[in-house]
Design goal:
Length: 79
């Protein structure tokens, strides 16, 4: 695994140390890697939502009422 040298602000360093002291993580490296994993997962989820929204916007708008949309959605779900 590549090694990196990074600097933390004092509040961030204190928070990291507290997480390790609480036995949440065994090292700063483990904690930072977990935070990066979480950020990557969050970005993947945001990208997925963005793609769904863009697809919806490209499909156009409807003049149907909420009730009609709900009825159509239930119909599609029920087959």
């Amino acid at each position: 695994m590549p090694r990196q040298s990074i600097s933390f602000s004092k509040p961030n360093d204190e928070w990291l140390k507290a997480q390790i002291a609480n036995d949440e993580y065994s090292s700063k490296s483990e904690l930072v890697n977990d935070l990066i994993r979480q950020a990557r997962n969050q970005q993947a989820h945001i990208d997925w939502i963005r793609a769904k929204l863009e697809k919806s916007e490209r499909s156009g708008f409807t003049s149907n009422t909420k009730e009609q949309i709900l009825k159509q959605s239930k119909s599609l779900l029920n087959g």
